[in-house]
Write a structure and sequence with these properties.
Blueprint (H helix, E strand, L loop, with lengths): L13 H16 L1 H26 L3 H25 L3 E3 L6 H34 L6 H10 L13 H8 L4 H33 L15 E3 L3 H11 L8 H16 L2 H6 L5 H16 L1 H9 L1 H5 L5 H12 L4 H16 L4 H7 L1 H14 L8 H12 L7 H25 L2
Helix pairs in contact: 1-2, 1-11, 2-11, 3-4, 3-8, 3-9, 3-11, 4-5, 4-7, 4-18, 5-7, 6-15, 7-17, 7-19, 8-9, 11-18, 12-15, 14-15, 14-17, 15-17
Length: 422
């Protein structure tokens, strides 16, 4: 879907900045008020920008494009959440650090087949149960880093930005052929850091956890018929015409899964619709309010990036914005910017002459999506599940200070130095 880029008044970026500020500070300063009124704040700020675009700029096609992207996003995220909530993986707790590393690695691989949303929603509850005797915020943070973001960088199915690139003409196999070295470095470094942190925590909690040699882990999978509905959703991803058929198929799969799954499985998973509602409301405001920011970026790309920007500019630029915007539209914004500054007339020309810059945008959007709760849709859903399980999760600023800066930033620096510095 194409639309004419509109030149917004820069002041209209303010609602987006206010929403980001509320997401960052309100849970810290006024948690009770925010839990009751976050929907009002998100929708009112979104309505202000929508009113400006519709009544002030008469940019109907731009708003329609945003609404379509939002509908596709929620259809995918919501349907995967419902279907994964109907699959129960029975595990024993008292997981060792090595068992946790293996589980996270499996999750990183699965994210490329199920998507980061599907893998995250399928595995987050078993992950919490495995570690329930000593589960802490760092377990959730590294799960977000590895399973909900970095792990899904090998296929267009893995993460929404890569799928949007596939729809724009990037070959399906190009992602795996070019991203696997960054995937290996990113996942490897994060797993190594997690093992060290988890080992220290495991030793400190030794008095409360049975010795690992007497633990006999048993695995059982319930709700396997939902794999059929999961296959329907994954197949629907590739349906692009006619409009809204893809989203309708996802909705039908979610409804079928919900009503055919035994209530006992939903109860075992503590499944409810709160994570989906929270993401739907907050991202409705995010998608609406970020339109002026993305449009301004699109129009000013050459001024900001220069005539021949190096790949590192795209890595840090697309990545930095992906940490505060949803990484899927940010990817598209920088892809358009790359076309603008290079003068490429087709995706094939871009791949033949500027492949490293496109790779920098792809990796930056996926990896930096893990930097905050709002960088990628699954992040918020994982946090919502953790909150339901009474795990004390940090606020957005705390998450950045406690986890993003000490653990994710070294990975980003390493990837930049090895692959994109030149």
């Amino acid at each position: 879907m194409n639309y004419e880029v509109i030149a917004p008044n820069p002041w209209m970026i303010l609602p987006f900045a206010l929403l980001l500020g509320a997401l960052a500070l309100a849970p810290l300063l006024a948690a009770g008020w925010w839990s009751r009124h976050y929907a009002k704040v998100s929708l009112v700020l979104g309505a202000i920008v929508l009113g400006y675009y519709l009544l002030g700029l008469h940019a109907t096609s731009r708003v329609w494009h945003m609404a379509y992207d939002y509908t596709s996003f929620i259809a995918l995220v919501g349907s995967l959440c419902v279907v994964s909530g109907g699959i129960h993986i029975n595990v024993r707790d008292e997981a060792t650090p090595l068992a946790n590393v293996v589980f996270l690695f499996i999750g990183a691989v699965a994210a490329n087949v199920l998507g980061t949303t599907g893998a995250a929603m399928l595995l987050i509850r078993p992950w919490i149960r495995m570690n329930r005797r000593r589960v802490a915020a760092y377990h959730i943070a590294f799960f977000i880093f590895i399973v909900a973001n970095v792990g899904g960088s090998l296929t267009p199915i893995g993460d929404p930005p890569l799928f949007l690139g596939y729809l724009r003409g990037v070959p399906f196999g190009w992602v795996a052929n070019n991203c696997w070295p960054m995937w290996a470095v990113g996942v490897g470094m994060l797993l190594a850091m997690f093992y060290v942190v988890d080992r220290i925590h495991f030793i400190r909690a030794a008095g409360e956890v049975r010795e690992p040699e007497v633990v006999r882990e048993t695995w059982r999978f319930d709700g396997l018929p939902n794999l059929f509905f999961l296959a329907v959703i994954l197949g629907a991803v590739f349906v692009t015409r006619p409009i809204f058929v893809r989203e309708a198929l996802m909705a039908v799969a979610a409804i079928g899964s919900y009503f055919t799954t035994p209530k006992s499985i939903h109860a075992a998973n503590d499944f409810n619709f709160h994570p989906v509602r929270e993401v739907a409301v907050l991202f409705a405001g995010i998608f609406a309010t970020m339109m002026p920011a993305l449009d301004w970026l699109n129009l000013n790309a050459r001024c900001l990036l220069g005539d021949q920007p190096p790949p590192g500019i795209f890595f840090w630029g697309a990545g930095g914005l992906s940490s505060v915007l949803d990484n899927a539209p940010t990817y598209l914004g920088f892809l358009d910017a790359l076309f603008g500054v290079t003068g490429a007339r087709s995706t094939g020309e871009l791949l033949s002459q500027h492949a490293l810059s496109l790779l920098a945008i792809s990796v930056g959007a996926v990896f930096f999506g893990a930097a905050t709760y709002i960088g990628n849709g699954p992040n918020f859903m994982v946090k919502a599940v953790a909150d339901q399980q009474k795990i004390r999760m940090p606020t957005l600023p705390e998450f950045v200070l406690k986890f993003t800066l000490p653990f994710l930033l070294p990975v980003l620096l390493a990837v930049w130095l090895i692959f994109f510095r030149g």
